[in-house]
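PROTEIN DESIGN WORKSHEET
SECTION A - STRUCTURE
LENGTH: 406
TOKENS:
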């Protein structure tokens, strides 16, 4: 090599000289931008487009990140209802399966004719379950047998399924049944208590007469709760006592009278509630056809309003302690405040157990001017009503021809 600056001798090397590569106006910069080095190495580790061309690394990363964010958002959207459904299902299972410990005992009376909705409402009110509507949903989803009427011992907070398990076992705590009909005198009620519950009839009767349990409709001066024992079907535990029966029957009477708003409607009649109850007991014994209850009540009030003796055989029979087809002169001469042929008024107390219908009739008497009625058809129990004595005598003759009485 010479330092003279002479041209390099390519021939001396045995190679042909070549022209220097031309540079376009863009320059090396543009050409280099097309080189693989700009994109990075082509390998399986780098993404390519659909034509097989390499993609810019930064764009690929951004696209991957966008896909990841979209997937994250999708998962989040799907998780929200999933979490909600999980929480709802967990709450529902807690409502249906929860068994409380340390809850207080609850005595629930399932009354005849109650449906599932009535039972659910009662369980919620007693705090045995949390929500009645949840129990109604559960019963719809799972076919459930009917619940028998009776008393059940449950526990507060025990939940739907445990409560239903107790109810479906039947009224275990109420193996004894007492059925009392309307129109019974106190001695007859006592006999049924003794017969059906194996209790002492005399003790039961004494508890009633001495006022061991009082009704809210019992005047302060009145001691006995006779006539304030509601006729119904009752269920009792085997260890029931006479006082328990009296208490239950009096409480039931008060419930029925309250449901009819007895005090308010008695006041509208300008009468004491207790006197209306006496009237209802007479209606109970004198009427066989429901359509006549309010008519008989009107006759009683009309007679009281004009200071007439009631002259009602049902009261005389109560006075002599004997049920008869009809009373006679001897019966009507007995000395008793319940002898309505001898004394005016309704007597000292209601004379019989009375139904809701009879109490309603006494609270809502028909508006009539009748002061007489008499049985005219013994087969149907139909009675004829009249405002005058002459018309009453004609009706008596009709009844006699129909052999309604002697």
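SECTION B - SEQUENCE
RESIDUE ASSIGNMENT:
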């Amino acid at each position: 090599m010479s330092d003279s600056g002479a041209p390099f001798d390519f021939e001396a090397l045995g190679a042909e000289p070549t022209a220097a590569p031309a540079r376009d106006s863009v320059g090396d910069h543009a050409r280099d931008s097309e080189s693989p080095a700009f994109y990075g190495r082509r390998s399986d580790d780098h993404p390519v487009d659909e034509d097989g061309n390499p993609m810019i690394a930064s764009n690929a990363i951004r696209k991957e990140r966008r896909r990841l964010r979209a997937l994250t958002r999708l998962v989040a959207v799907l998780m929200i209802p999933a979490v909600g459904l999980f929480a709802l299902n967990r709450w529902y299972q807690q409502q249906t399966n929860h068994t409380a410990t340390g809850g207080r005992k609850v005595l629930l009376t399932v009354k005849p004719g109650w449906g599932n909705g009535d039972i659910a409402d009662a369980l919620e009110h007693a705090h045995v379950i949390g929500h009645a509507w949840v129990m109604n949903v559960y019963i719809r989803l799972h076919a459930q047998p009917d619940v028998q009427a009776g008393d059940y011992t449950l526990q507060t907070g025990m939940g739907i399924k445990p409560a239903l398990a107790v109810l479906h076992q039947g009224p275990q705590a109420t193996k004894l049944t007492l059925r009392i009909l309307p129109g019974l005198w106190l001695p007859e009620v006592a006999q049924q208590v003794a017969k059906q519950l194996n209790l002492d009839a005399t003790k039961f009767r004494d508890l009633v007469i001495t006022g061991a349990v009082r009704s809210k409709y019992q005047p302060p001066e009145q001691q006995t709760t006779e006539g304030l024992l509601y006729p119904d079907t009752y269920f009792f535990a085997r260890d029931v006592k006479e006082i328990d029966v009296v208490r239950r029957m009096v409480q039931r009477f008060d419930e029925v009278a309250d449901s009819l708003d007895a005090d308010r409607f008695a006041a509208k009649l300008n009468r004491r509630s207790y006197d209306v109850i006496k009237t209802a007991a007479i209606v109970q014994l004198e009427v066989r056809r429901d359509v006549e209850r309010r008519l008989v009540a009107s006759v009683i009030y009309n007679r009281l309003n004009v200071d007439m003796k009631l002259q009602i055989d049902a009261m005389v029979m109560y006075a002599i302690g004997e049920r008869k087809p009809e009373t006679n002169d001897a019966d009507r001469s007995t000395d008793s405040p319940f002898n309505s042929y001898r004394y005016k008024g309704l007597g000292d107390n209601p004379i019989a157990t009375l139904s809701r219908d009879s109490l309603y009739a006494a609270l809502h008497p028909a508006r009539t001017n009748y002061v007489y009625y008499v049985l005219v058809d013994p087969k149907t129990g139909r009675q004829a009503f009249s405002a005058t004595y002459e018309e009453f005598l004609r009706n008596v003759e009709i009844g006699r021809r129909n052999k309604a009485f002697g």
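SECTION C - NOTES
The first strand starts at residue 105 and ends at 110.
Residues 90 and 311 are 71 Å apart (CA to CA).
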